[in-house]
Amino acid sequence: MIAVARLAIVVGIAGLFPFIAAVASLFLVPQYSVTAISWFYVYSAGILAFMAGVYWPIAMQLENCSYPQSPLVTMVLSQVFFVIAGVGLLLPTLGQVLVYSLAFLALYAVDVRWMRVYWPSWYLRMRLVLTLVVLACQLTVAAWYILLHGT
């Protein structure tokens, strides 16, 4: 049987490939940059919504337990990030640049600040690495877009 930590790390790293592939495609096949950026933000929304969904099972387990966060706060956090993921898709590209970069940063900050007690010790270290790679990809796509299209 594979350890949960090892499986989560493998899946987390695999989840980075579409981000990295989209960034690489900007340089390898720049004629498809508009399509690559569109898919990049669709994937960003999906991952943000997926990560926000992690808070729901925590909320359901909190009902009869004594933890620092109430189930209401945990569920609201989940929904806030889910809505941000969806609304971000409706924004122009410069809005997406800002929304998704800040949302991934905020999601990690919530995990570190308010959700730390729920995660195993290895989880936040893994999340830091994954978040930094995602943010680097977000900023690279942003720079590419701004250099190509201006503000």
From TrEMBL:
Domain of life assignment: Bacteria
MF (Gene Ontology): kinase activity
Transmembrane segments: 7-28, 40-60, 72-91, 97-116, 128-147
Annotated InterPro entries: DUF3429 (IPR021836)
Keyword tags: Kinase, Membrane, Transferase, Transmembrane, Transmembrane helix
Protein name as it appears in the record: Aspartate kinase
Source organism per UniProt: Marinobacter similis
